[in-house]
Amino acid sequence: MNFYDDLHAHGAAIALIADGGEHITYDGLQKIADGIGGATTSRTLAFCLCENNVESVAAYLGFLRKRVAPLMLSASINRELLQNLLQTYRPAYLWLPEGLADVCAGARIVHRYGSYALLQTPYTDTPSLHGDLALLLTTSGSTGSPMLVRQSYKNIASNAAAIAQYLGITGGDRPITTLPMSYSYGLSILNSHFLRGCTVLLTAKSLMDKGFWQMLKTGEATTFGGVPYVYEMLKRLNFKRMDLPSLKTLTQAGGKLDAALVREFAGVCAEKGIRFFVMYGQTEATARMSYLPPDYAESAAGSIGVAIPGGEFWLEDEQGKAILEEGATGELVYRGDNVTLGYASCGADLAKGDENGGVLHTGDLARRDADGLYYIVGRMKRVLKLFGNRINLEEVEQMISEFGYSCVCAGVDDRLRIYTCEKEGHAQIKSFIVERTGIHHSAFEVVYIDSIPRNEAGKILYSALH
C-alpha cells in the first residue's frame, strides 16, 4: 500500500488537526491534494516551499499522487540559495506562500489553496525525470550547495512500512510535529503515520512555545520525535516533571545524543510508561536505518541498535573487506530498499537511475558488540591529524562532554578548535584534552561562542564555525 495513493482507505478518519483547530479527514485531504496535483503535468519537477501546515502537506501528497517530483524546501529558505536552485534545476512548478510569488520572474499562478499558490514557471528547458524518481531533499546541513538526494517511490514506501512496523504504529497514534517536513526525519514521521491512518497534530510551534504544549495536551498527542537539540531543550524545560498522560512514544534521531542524556531520558520515560526509541538514519537512506529497542535504551546507551526490518548492517575496513571481529571499528555499511538512487547536482542528473544498488557506505565509523548492537564512534571525514596523530572530533567532543563541558570541535590539521558556550573553564578543558591525548598543548585552542550554530532541524552547522 502506498500511503499517498490510498488516502481514501481511511475515509472519514481525521488525518490532520491544524494549528488553528481545523480538522481534515483523509477524504478531505485527498480532495485538496488532487486539486493541487490536478493543476500540474505529470513527471515534472516542482519546488515545494513548505511549512508545517495543511497547504504544504496537501501539496506533498498531491505531487506524489500525480507523479510530480517535488523538491522539499523550507519556506524560510535564503533567497540567494533559492535563486541558485531555480537556475540550476529550472522546475516546471513552484508551490509557495503567495507572498513569495515574486521569486520567479514570468511565473503565473495556476492554482490557489489557503495562503499558498501554485506557479507555473516560464522555463522551457525543464529537466527530464527518471521513471523511479519520486522526491528530492537537500543533503543535511546544505546551505549553499545544489547537491540533492534522489529518492524513489520504493524508497519512500519501504521506509515508511519499516518504521511503522518497528514502532508498532496503529491508527490510534497521534503524532505532533516537532520537525520541519523539508527534513527527512520530519517527513518520515508523516509518511509512516499516514500509512496507518493516524491523526497528525500539525503545528509550526516550537517546544519553547506554550501553544505547542497546549496543542499536545488538548490533541492528546501520543508521540513526537526530536533531534539531540530537542532533547537538550526538553531537559531545560524539566520534562521529568511534566504531566502528559497521553504521551506513549518518544523517538530520537538526526545525530548522536549524548549517552548520559540517553540514560536520563530512558529512566524518565520508564517512570512515565513511555517508550523511548533511539534511532539512526541519513537522507541518503530515505530516513532511518536502525533503532534501539526501548528495553536496551538505558543498558546500551550510546548504541544505534539494530537495522530496521528489511535492512542489513556490516562493517568494512579501509580495503573494503568485511570486519567480523567483535568490538573492532570500521565503516558502517547498510543494505536495504530505502537506500536512495544517488545524488543530483544539476538538472541532467534527475534523469539518472539507481547508482547505489541498494547499498550505502555511510561514512560513519562504528563498532559492533557481542549482542549485535552497533555504536557510532565517529565520522570518517571528521578526522584531523595533530602532529601525526589521527584524532576523531566526535570522540573529543564526547570526552569533553563527559568531563562536564558542552562543546563542538572543528579545525585543520595540527590545529583543533574547541568551541564552547561556557565562559569559564577554558584552561581546564585544554589541560584535560592535552592529558587525555598526550598531544602538545599548541595543537588545541578553546574558543568561546555565544551559541552553537544550527539549522532549522537542530543539526550543528560545522561549516559556520570559523
UniProtKB/TrEMBL annotation:
Domain annotation AMP-dependent synthetase/ligase: ranges: 9-343
Pfam families: AMP-binding
Species for this entry: Pseudoduganella ginsengisoli
Organism superkingdom: Bacteria
SUPFAM superfamilies, sorted: Acetyl-CoA synthetase-like (SSF56801)
InterPro entries: AMP-dep_synth/lig_dom, ANL_N_sf, ATP-dep_AMP-bd_enzyme
Transmembrane parts of this sequence: none
Protein name: AMP-binding protein
